[in-house]
Design goal:
The complex is a heterodimer.
Chain A lengths: L3 E4 L2 E4 L5 E7 L5 E7 L5 E8 L2 E5 L6 E7 L2 E6 L8 E8 L2 E3 L1 E3 L2 E3 L3 E5 L1
Parallel strand pairs in A: 2-13
Antiparallel strand pairs in A: 1-3, 3-8, 4-5, 4-9, 5-6, 7-8, 9-12, 9-13, 10-11
Chain B lengths: L3 E4 L2 E5 L4 E7 L6 E6 L5 E7 L5 E4 L2 E6 L4 E6 L8 E8 L7 E3 L3 E6 L1
Parallel strand pairs in B: 2-11
Antiparallel strand pairs in B: 1-3, 3-8, 4-5, 4-9, 6-7, 7-8, 9-10, 9-11
Classes of the chains: A mainly beta, B mainly beta.
Chain lengths: ~120, ~110
């Protein structure tokens, strides 16, 4: 019973192609994220949506476009893929909870390993 | 802009030994998160530290938070091979922030 799922797990494609990665969470969380993890394991936030509204949009190329059809889904579409896009892309979700202090534990999906040839 | 720095970035230690991973963050935060990532796998939440002086323990791992020093530590006691993984700390950008800033990760290898 996967909490945060992503498809596909692996994606091998040619430069210049357009591809999409899908993410779904069944935790009832309001907020979802896309992260990119490069070959050195550095984890960088790309986008975040809260209740289908874009709230974080870090400096990423315009070729990357997130879409959130509802708060349980956040998809990532990438146009004109480049070699440098090869990485692992993680989706995550969280629910900000205030119980004396804020808490915002993020739950990560299994990752999508993208290889651009 | 919040910066989160971990050290060391690479750690090779023998089974049975103790060691500490450090996580410094640059702006005030009253909470800190630790994650574990096994090779080829996703990130898994390890500890959530929600106040100054918070200490959490699970098995051979113990995490603590000193908000005044802006420092969290992850202490490993009597390391075993199963602890080999990359450990990330993360801090929120501000009160009620949706964003976590992650450190670069500490790759731990426990050798016999």
């Amino acid at each position: 019973d996967t909490a945060v799922s992503q498809t596909p797990k692996y994606l091998v494609t040619q430069m210049g192609n357009d591809k999409s990665i899908k993410c779904e969470q069944n935790l009832g969380h309001d907020t979802m994220y896309w992260y990119k993890q490069d070959s050195k394991k550095f984890l960088k936030i790309m986008f975040s949506y809260n209740n289908k509204e874009l709230i974080i949009n870090e400096t990423v190329p315009n070729r990357f476009s997130p879409k959130s059809p509802d708060k349980a889904h956040l998809n990532l579409h990438i146009n004109s893929l480049e070699l440098g896009d090869s990485a692992v892309y993680f989706c995550a979700s969280s629910q900000v909870v205030f119980l004396a202090v804020y808490q915002e534990t993020q739950y990560f999906g299994p990752g999508t390993r993208l290889l651009v040839l | 802009e919040l910066k989160v720095e971990q050290n060391p970035l690479f750690l090779s230690m023998q089974e049975g030994k103790n060691y500490t991973i450090y996580c410094n963050y640059s702006t005030t935060s009253d909470r800190l998160y630790w994650y574990r990532q096994d090779p080829g796998k996703s990130l898994e939440s390890l500890f959530v530290l929600l106040s100054n002086g918070a200490v959490k323990q699970e098995g051979r791992l113990m995490a603590s938070l000193d908000t005044k020093a802006r420092l969290s530590t992850l202490h490993i006691t009597a390391a075993v091979h199963d602890l080999s993984a990359t450990y990330f700390c993360a801090a929120p950008s501000g009160a009620g922030s949706y964003q976590l800033t992650f450190g670069k990760g500490t790759k731990l290898s426990v050798i016999p």
